[in-house]
Amino acid sequence: MKLGEYQKLKVVKTVEFGVYLAEEAGDELRVLLPEKQVPEGTKTGDELEVFLYRDSKDRIIATTHTPKLTLGGLAVLRVAEVGKIGAFLDWGLEKDLFLPYKEMTAKLQPEDEILVTLYIDKSRRLCASMKKLYHLLSCDSPYRKDDVVNGRVYEFGHDFGTFVAVDDRYSAMIPAHEDCSRLHIGDVIEAKVLGVKPDGKLDITLREKAYLQMDADAARVLAVIDEFAGVLPFTDKASPEVIKRETGLSKNAFKRAVGRLYKERRIEITERAIRKIR
Fold this sequence. Notes:
Strand 12 and strand 13 (170-175) form a beta hairpin. The model has no long low-confidence stretch (mean pLDDT 90). This protein has a five-stranded antiparallel beta sheet with strand order 3-2-1-4-5, with no helix packed on it. It has a five-stranded antiparallel beta sheet with strand order 8-7-6-9-10, with no helix packed on it. Strands 11-12-13-15-14 form a five-stranded mixed barrel. The protein is mostly beta strands. The N and C termini lie far apart (62 Å). 14% of the residues lie in helices and 37% in strands.
């Protein structure tokens, strides 16, 4: 049974609440596929491709749903909740994915979008990690010098620079001499390619200084509020899709801009809206 991966298993037993799957009919090691996920017409002996993970009672269970992340892979996941022992990420399955505090590289808030990998911990549980992503990123990007790219900040290397995943998949770095103090883990930036290293990794530079970009984003948010007659009918807790559709900004950029405007007392924030202060 390959936890955290897709595999093809045979239906060996049908019960009222689903079907049991195994590699072969006589195997004692079996896993349940819940009834609501069993394809119509499935019968004993059929082969199904499923993904294996652990349910809320820590039992291995099969699913025909498609997770956003598989073992050893990379994906951008939304933070659904932050608790006392870690965070829980939405990865497309009924049970959220656990991200332990020891695997975080920054303090997180609900709705943050972060780049993570999937691993199996010492207790044989599937967990997410924000660490050790560097070697999982691809070095065969199509970009060349002077190209403009979009990337997500995933680690601050201090003496080395700021590590960025271009298109959430290609390895890139902002040189250490550039001021990235205004950036946060998970931020999506626009940058220009300074050069391509012999190993394929990208050296990039911020297209605009962070403070200038934030000024532009804040101005954009004010303009959108004006379009809504001075009251924006959502806050920075809205979905990334709504924020992108209405403002053209990423959720992180929107949150930074709203924070700037709030500190400058140019807006007030209620539970469901943002109001411009006249």
